[in-house]
Structures are given as C-alpha cells and as structure tokens.
Design goal:
Blueprint lengths: L4 E10 L3 E7 L5 E2 L2 E3 L6 H13 L1 E3 L5 E9 L2 E9 L13 E3 L5 E3 L1 E8 L3 H4 L2 H10 L2 H15 L4 E3 L3
Parallel strand pairs: 1-7
Antiparallel strand pairs: 1-2, 1-4, 2-3, 2-10, 5-11, 6-7, 8-9
Length: 163
C-alpha cells in the first residue's frame, strides 16, 4: 500500500435503506462525504471532519463503524466508516468547503444532498464508488451491522454543525 493516496469517508445510512449522498458541484456525480487527511489526522478523524464539512453532520467518533480500507482508484484507497442516523431533511445539509471553478467563481464542493435508495446508488455515483458500494461491499450487510450496533449501544450521537 506504500505510495497510495488515502481518502477517508463516511456512509450515512437510515433505516429506510437509503444512503445520504451529496452532489459534487459542477458535475453530474453524487458522492459520499470523503477527502484526504490533514497532517497528523487519523482515518476516523478525517472521515468525521469531511462529513461535517460536506454535510453539516457532526458525528461522534464512537458512533462510526469502521469498514476498513478498500482499493478505490488507481493510486488511491478509500477508508470507509458507516453510521446510522434518523432520516433528516437533506435540505438542512450544508457544505462549508469551497473551490474556485473555471470561471473563478467560489462554489461549495457539494451543492445539494439527497437520500438515495440502496438500489439507485450505482446510477448516482461515479463508476469506482458505485462498484465499491454495490459489488465489494453490501449496503444491506452494513445496515444490518449498524442496526445490531444500535440495539447493543443505543443510537448514534451526532448534531448539526454550528457554521
């Protein structure tokens, strides 16, 4: 794994068999909250920060289920975590990180959010993420693990970001 870039992200699921996705500004692609680590940051810390930045959901560290590191793109792996929350209104989700587009306009990294049924995930995401979420992982199995975890430890702790 030496030399590979590591991106870290979170699968935010609800009991209705849906995955929260964000629309990547300026593209047709929908994505999970994910990104690269900052110096000294653990994979878990990165996933939590990226989720807060790209959706406004601040997740308690202990609420994240570690799904491990997975091959993602050529030269890049993806370390995934998962959390089960109640179905929130995606219009409340906000992205606090921005980029300059080709016309030098400041745009949010994510400009919309939606709950996507498991069976529609592959049609919304890019090819590599769709393959990971529908072929190498089972969203149904992840949901089952999260439901069992909730029965044993109670609901996931989270809140909306202040900014």
């Amino acid at each position: 794994m030496a030399g590979l870039v590591l991106s870290c992200g979170t699968l935010v699921l609800d009991r209705e068999r849906e995955l929260l996705l964000g629309h990547a500004s300026g593209s047709a692609r929908w994505d999970i909250p994910k990104g690269l680590s900052e110096p000294g940051e653990s994979a878990r810390e990165t996933a939590r920060r990226e989720t807060a930045e790209e959706s406004g959901l601040v997740l308690a560290s202990e609420s994240l289920l570690d799904l491990g590191r997975h091959p993602y793109l050529r030269g890049k792996d993806l370390h995934l975590f998962a959390v089960l929350i109640e179905r929130v209104d995606p219009a409340r989700c906000t992205c606090s990180t921005h980029f300059l587009d080709r016309r030098n306009r400041l745009r949010p990294e994510v400009d919309a959010h939606a709950w996507v049924p498991f069976e529609a995930v592959s049609s919304r995401c890019g090819k590599s993420l769709a393959a990971l979420l529908t072929q190498r992982l089972s969203l149904e199995a992840v949901l089952a693990d999260l439901l069992e975890r909730e029965r044993a430890h109670g609901p996931a702790a989270w809140h909306w970001s202040a900014g």
